[in-house]
Amino acid sequence: PIRSDAKACRPDLVIRMDVDEVSKLDADGVYSEVIYSNELPWRLCVNSENSKRTSNKKMIGAYVECNWESESDEWGCEIAVENAVISRNNGEEKLFNRFLASGYTLKGILRLISWNDLKDPNKGFVFNDRITVECRVYIKKVTGVRKLNMIDYTTPSDGHNNIVLVVEEKKLYVSKDYLAMYSTVFEDIFFGKYEEKIKEVEMELYDVKYQEFIDLLDMIYPTAIEINARTVSHILQLAERFDIQYVVERAESYLIETNKFKTLAKLAFADKYGLDELMDHCLALYTDLAALKTLKPSPEYKGFSDKTKSAICDKMMDL
């Protein structure tokens, strides 16, 4: 059961989500928007399961996830959680679990409720094939988490912004000087050969996704946000496009250290973006000629540059 002191106080975080077409939910489920609390990202996932674990009965599952993209095991949190389904008849709720989590990294805790318990139309939990799930999180303690400097690029800041970048029709307020300090492309645009053409206070960027560009800005500005498996590919692509060597080096260091990608995938990154340190790191992992020979039939190998293929052949000769 949940601790009485947590139950009596106001939750630190409430995630409420309407789930449409609940009868068609699958194991992948649907996710809420990400909400930040105590310097950590939180989200709710609702899915369904029909397996041996559920005695071959359809169950609706609710995950509360925290800091799911982190690859560190040096942080943790102590929390109490309530999950509830809200009735559309009178606002009453069906509280289907309370639980405590402490002393370990929280990356997903599943709790299930029977579909048969929900679908009675008189109870109003399912209406027009929709349910409303509410997750209430009581955060008792967080350890090993650095304070994030979350920057809102969508709001102008006096004295710090002098250009508006428009990405997918959304405005981002940034500093010319700050971007130019890291990017030779932005330096040329704002202060070099294109300066006379950029007199307006707004400039549109094409062929860029809004969230991906924010991820890039978070690497340049002092946010303490780290590169992860979800962001590294588009961050590298944008860092190369705008010639931001500092970000390329951060991405290369991440790929060397992470275990989220297989060596062949890392070789593909190294080949595509000319990451020599990553290339050397990957080739050093091959200590067996037979393992190295498995590269040749792979689709990735066929796309490698002649330089990378030559480096692989040289490694084979050394073995």
TrEMBL record:
<dbReference type="InterPro" id="IPR000210">
    <property type="entry name" value="BTB/POZ_dom"/>
</dbReference>
<dbReference type="InterPro" id="IPR011333">
    <property type="entry name" value="SKP1/BTB/POZ_sf"/>
</dbReference>
<dbReference type="InterPro" id="IPR008974">
    <property type="entry name" value="TRAF-like"/>
</dbReference>
<feature type="domain" description="MATH">
    <location>
        <begin position="12"/>
        <end position="137"/>
    </location>
</feature>
<dbReference type="Pfam" id="PF00651">
    <property type="entry name" value="BTB"/>
</dbReference>
<protein>
    <recommendedName>
        <fullName>BTB domain-containing protein</fullName>
    </recommendedName>
</protein>
<feature type="domain" description="BTB">
    <location>
        <begin position="161"/>
        <end position="229"/>
    </location>
</feature>
<dbReference type="Pfam" id="PF22486">
    <property type="entry name" value="MATH_2"/>
</dbReference>
<dbReference type="InterPro" id="IPR002083">
    <property type="entry name" value="MATH/TRAF_dom"/>
</dbReference>
